[in-house]
Amino acid sequence: xxxxxxxxKVFYYVxxxxxxxxxxxxxxxSQSAVSQSxxxxxxxxxQPLFIRSTKKVQLxxxxxxxFKHIEPAMNLIARGENQLLDSTTLGLGxxxxxxxxxxxxxxxxxxxxxxxxxxxxxxxxxxNATSIQCVDLxxxxxxxxxxxxxxxxxxxxxxxxxxxxxxxDVFIANPNYFHLKQKQIxxxxxxxxxxxxxxxxxxxxxxxxxxxxxxxxxxxxxIELSSNDLLLDLAKIGLGIAFVPDYCVPANTKDLxxxxxxxxxxxxxxxxxxxxxxxxxxxxxxxxxxxxG
Length: 293
Fold this sequence. Notes:
The chain is an alpha/beta fold. The protein is built from 10 helices and 14 strands.
């Protein structure tokens, strides 16, 4: 089918913003030109792509299918343009990493510092997202690489480039509220207490739920949040027993202790992954060489 690329470009900007006026601003063309381009594309494809109303614009089912294919294609084109046009960075282009806020804070910072010192002209962009959302960003070509926890049920294992850290997960509590410091506790006993953990959009949540299932237990957390730091804060004031990676737990704190579990939790890893179906930039390779492992 012979369809001008510019029509798909207009479609992408309308679909991503769900606004004809926003698309016209980003494309520097009139709103009527945007509307006419969409009508032309719909005529060529012989089906409507948008539901238009006075209040909002929505994608039709056909529009949703098309957008799923157009979005990664546009991201791929942008990546190619960035690598070719950015001559001020010695051919390295920019570095765009996806990672959770916990991994950014407790792991990535020193390596970003080292990379920036070595390649001061390379722009660095970090997108904070859950581990599951990071995989979507990688699949769509919106980031060059991700640092995420493993095991990861949503990650294509062929994308893994290296293991950058090993860690354990722990249950922590305030000894003034939970008198369990001198006691070994089983998962069944633990399940009687208020458990606080990351929400379902995380590999940590998926991991702990699978552990409980392996012990024929249903995990019903009292509190689910998107931040390990907030879980630590709530554990300190005695709202429950928090489940967090061990590297998040502050050293020598009197407000928290690590529970001694009868059944030991399996260790996990932190891995660096790239989309092997897309070209890997020189900046990404340079950053991978700085990471441990």
